[in-house]
Amino acid sequence: MIQVKNAGELAKMRRACAISAAALKAGGAAIEAGITTAELDSIIYDFIVRHGARPNFLHLHGFPGTACISVNDTVIHGIPKKDIHIRPGDIVSIDTGCKLDGFNGDNACTYACGKVDKEAQRLMDVTKESLHCGIAAALAGSRVGDISAAVQAYVEENGFTVVRDFVGHGVGRELHEAPEVPNFGRAGHGPRLVPGMTIAIEPMVNQGRPEVKTLSDGWTVKTVDGKLAAHFEHTVAITARGPEVLTAGWEDPAWTL
């Protein structure tokens, strides 16, 4: 069942999402050559706890980290490890969030470690812009499929592919709620968007083929062809005035809590 939040619940969502965005930004700022994904995870954990919230990824269905940290051809769910060192030219996707006062925030961004090649940068740029296309379509009275179609169209017209095995989702008292928000689909289809809905729009985009594989650890999801992947995500509230991006802070270089 899709949960519609009242004004008080949306206020709590805003605070949880603000901390989630600031934690993501702190993790991105710490990326440098030689740092391990475990060290990045520790930075994000300390930030969330220091601000009075709880990391909502940690131990969820057994996941061992505060953040999913996915490097290069890892699409999502990369487990933070002491032996994974970030190298110059890597692209690093961080997906993290927190829970505060009973409500969740969720967001993701793909960062470059130093200078990356032109196609890697274009992949990141297109994926981020496809997120903005999806947000622009998240209008009260429209349908989930309008978001999905907007993301897919932008990605594919730029020569990349959307992952179909994993999708966005509702966010609220639970980290993953109804409805599912795919990054592919038909406009005019799916659940209707109404004020008070809060959803995670999260394009997962591959440089090559759309197919992915899950490694034997049960978590790490990689591209099947070894090509790069990027992942961007915002938690968005549907309002009568248009979409409200609750995790907008990580995109603003000047923003702080």
Descriptive report:
This protein has 257 residues and is an alpha+beta fold. It has one domain (7-251): Creatine Amidinohydrolase (Alpha-Beta Complex), CATH 3.90.230.10. The protein has helices at residues 7-29, 37-50, 118-136, 144-157; strands spanning 54-55, 67-71, 74-76, 91-100, 103-112, 161-162, 168-170, 177-181, 198-201, 204-206, 212-214, 221-223, 229-231, 234-237, 244-245. The chain starts with 6 loop residues before the first helix and ends in a 12-residue tail after the last strand. The mean pLDDT is 98.
Protein topology:
Layout: H1 7-29, H2 37-50, E1 54-55, E2 67-71, E3 74-76, E4 91-100, E5 103-112, H3 118-136, H4 144-157, E6 161-162, E7 168-170, E8 177-181, E9 198-201, E10 204-206, E11 212-214, E12 221-223, E13 229-231, E14 234-237, E15 244-245
Antiparallel strand pairs: 1-4, 2-4, 3-12, 4-5, 6-10, 7-8, 7-9, 9-14, 10-13, 11-12, 14-15
Name its key features.
4-stranded antiparallel sheet, single chain, Creatine Amidinohydrolase, 5-stranded antiparallel sheet, alpha+beta, 257 residues
Helix content: 25-40%
Number of strands: 15
Second rung of CATH, namely the architecture: Alpha-Beta Complex
Mean pLDDT: 98
How widely separated are the two ends?
32 Å
| Tertiary shape | globular
The count of helical stretches stands at 4
- Strand order in space, largest sheet: 8-7-9-14-15
CATH class: Alpha Beta
Number of domains as seen in the coordinates? 1
**What is the ordering of alpha helices and beta strands?**
HHEEEEEHHEEEEEEEEEE
Radius of gyration equals 17 Å
Beta-strand percent range: 15-25%
Q: Structural class, judged by helices and strands?
A: alpha+beta
Question: What is the fold-level CATH name, i.e. the topology?
Answer: Creatine Amidinohydrolase
Give the biggest beta sheet.
5 strands, antiparallel
Oligomer: single chain
Low-pLDDT residue spans = none
Give the full name of the CATH homologous superfamily: Creatinase/methionine aminopeptidase superfamily
